[in-house]
Fold this sequence. Notes:
Blueprint: E1 6-7, E2 31-38, E3 42-50, H1 62-65, E4 68-70, E5 73-77, E6 83-86, H2 88-101, H3 109-122, E7 134-143, E8 155-165, E9 176-180, H4 198-202, H5 205-213, E10 218-222, E11 230-233, E12 237-242, E13 245-248, H6 259-271, E14 275-277, H7 282-290, E15 294-301, E16 305-314, E17 317-320, H8 328-341, E18 352-354
Parallel strand pairs: 1-3, 9-10, 9-16, 13-14
Antiparallel strand pairs: 2-3, 2-8, 4-7, 5-6, 5-7, 6-18, 7-8, 10-11, 12-13, 12-15, 15-16, 16-17
The chain binds pyridoxal-5'-phosphate.
InterPro entries: Aminotrans_IV, Aminotrans_IV_CS, Aminotransferase-like, B_amino_transII, BCAT-like_C, BCAT-like_N, BCAT_family
EC number: 2.6.1.42
Family: Belongs to the class-IV pyridoxal-phosphate-dependent aminotransferase family.
Amino acid sequence: xxxxxxxxxxxxxxxxxxxxxxxxxxxxxxxMFVMDYEEEQGWHDPRIIPYGPLTMDPAAMVFHYGQxxxxxxxxYTTPDGTVxxxxxxxxxxxxxxxCERLHxxxxxxxFLLNAIQQLLLKEKDWIPTEEGTSLYIRPYVxxxxxxxxxxxxxxxxxxxxxxxxxxxxxxxxSPVPIYVEEKYIRASVGGVGEVKTAGNYAASMxxxxxxxxxxxxxxxxxxxxxxxxVEEVGSMNIFFKINGEVVTPELSGSxxxxxxxxxxxxxxxxxxxxxxxxxxxxxEIFDAHARGExxxxxxxxxxxxxxxxxxxxxxxxxxxxxxxxxxxxSQRLYDTITGIQFGKTEDEFxxxxxxxxxxx
Length: 360
Ligand SMILES: *Cc1c(COP(=O)(O)O)cnc(C)c1O
């Protein structure tokens, strides 16, 4: 796929937010990437145009049946001023896996990555440079055909928007309290839990709000069949360090195959720290704590990188992990992964991709 990407420059550029007040997903850049799909033409008309509202037919199928998928990755500025991405090939691949599961036409992965890089080059001034800040990249697709019969849409739109974001925690990692969900489930095997589709999030909002009302910042989901095995947390995968060994739920078909999750596993292997991907019950975690062997618990995802868990509540029991302190392994993983992402630690794994190298 070697289509030319057309460009329409915004007339009046926006004011950029100051880097100490970025938040997450609040501000958007001057331009966006858009592409359309029609059955007869395939994906066509790739363009970078001023960021702004879309016009949609009220019958557009996404509003009714929810064919919508997305990805999330970040662009980082390095100390020498270059811009880089972290393992973007994995996001492109997962983008297509999500498309396939929702019966949305896939897109050439190299083309999409190149389109993202071209957009980044146009929006380079929007990439924040303060410690810990980055430019969040959100590629997504949704069904646009005006039709309310139930079948896959024949028309789609693919967009990429960019948002400058702050560091999730400021300078310090802070352990969060987590609620083990008993009443609601997130996903079941054979469903869509292993892909990034909008509906997974829609289904989790009520449970998330109820947990927040009880004072927890996130939910830990259990499996849908036995309500027993640990799955994942909101938009993070989860890891437990028990008696010197790390364990994370295996890719069961109902959890997301996170890029951060995979990076953690590869780093642990490289460091010679035992790590296993397997079924793990919530009871085993509480038992390990009772034996004094639960050393660390942390989540892993692009937005937060590594998020230490300080407290877990399951039914009527609450346990504190590592006295609510950041564990040394959580800190080491956070420092190493962000070090590689921001070009401050040598990238021995070849995980980073320089944006400037891209042919435009
Ligand atoms: C995106 C996401 C993750 C984390 O994946 P990363 O590739 O590490 O960002 C974990 N769980 C869910 C449900 C997600 O949507």
